[in-house]
Batch of 2 targets.
Target 1
Amino acid sequence: MMSVTILAASLGQASAPIIAISKATSAAGDFFAIIDAPKPSTEGLKHPEASAQEDISFESVDFAYPSRPHVKILDELSVKFDCGKITAIVGASGSGKSTIVGLLERWYGLDHETIIIPKAISDVPQTEKDATTEAPQENGDPVVLGGSIKVGSHAISDLDLKWWRSQIGLVQQEPFIFNDTIAKNIEYGLIGSEWGRFFSALDIYACLNTEISIRLIISCFRIASDTAANLA
């Protein structure tokens, strides 16, 4: 009887590792799908053949994320961003604002050959609000990507990827910083740019003209946590 009790208890304790292994196996599918995906071309047009000081236009763009290929995020989107003007994109959560930025950064493309990434098992529990909200339909055929994005007269996919991204300054909602001083984080962000070799502690001290500048310099040499809690 004691042996049976010990065996039952051991089997019960083994269930948790088995569940963890199952979830890890499913999550690994995402990584292998990304690793095996074809690499995007990084070569193309750059200055002086192309210029970032041009209008940016989306023409009839249809888009769905590789991890959710059946859910259309952008539906026949046509919009033009005029060069030299400040444009604000306003909309509800999930309406595609961040998707537009992702397409401009070329994190995703509009290739007609859709790459589907399997959906991993999630540990995040479904909240009561999520349970009552009708989920988008994820059955049927994957969304066919289409449309075009142009910078001036050139398709965005024809631009040199490294050069194009060097023309964009992006501040995300949740900045990720290194566990170092704010000054060092700024310096790391300028590596590879035309300003990288000019930024140093001496350049910071050169700005010491006002009390506000002094306070800013002191803040720049404080250690910033990885959650940006000390940025204020």
Target 2
Amino acid sequence: MNTYLRKSGTLLLLLAVSIIPGGIHAQTVTPYEQLAWPVTEQQYKAALPEDVDKDSGSRLPFVNRDELDEEGKAYYDARRAPGSTSLGGIRGPGSVRLHGSRDMEKSKVDRRTQELARLVVSREMDQRFEWTLHEPVALENGVPAEVIDIIRYRKPLEGIDDRDVSIIQLGREIFQDHKVKPETYARVLKHLGKRDLLDLCDYMGDYVKTSILLHTVDAHLPYEREPLLPIP
């Protein structure tokens, strides 16, 4: 039976969403962020976002060992072996990287994409030194001046190539929200593919490391180089 409640002149309708033998019961799913541990495996999996694999607990499924080369299989096995130093095991970042190139010297992410991502990171980290040195390199590798200005001044992502939009938006969400929306992930995945997306994340991590180093020592450009990045 549906139950009606009237409060402050507003009619609220409470609908039963699950019928089981013995009566009608309301069934709710607690979002992952609101779970109170301990929880059951069923509660855990039900709470995961729709685009997250229920077994791996991430947007990527566990890598298929049979599809790896011998080096990859050894890497995979090391994370499952007793006494492994990998805290995350096959769920950790090391195993997630098995979906990528692993050896970044073999990465197929082109230089234009690398330089675009470097500017995104430099902007989000307010890193003038890195930006000023690499803006000319980005131009040389085909990043349009219009795109660079959108990153520089944090303008709306309008009127530019959708691939560039997806990479810039990815960076903005990572650094500003510390979370990537499902639609943003799907968008950049469509353009880059799984391997290149993971490689791009590794490249961005390297650029963050550079920014941390330069900020820590308060590195300044030489007197003849005008800073090209406004702060903030």
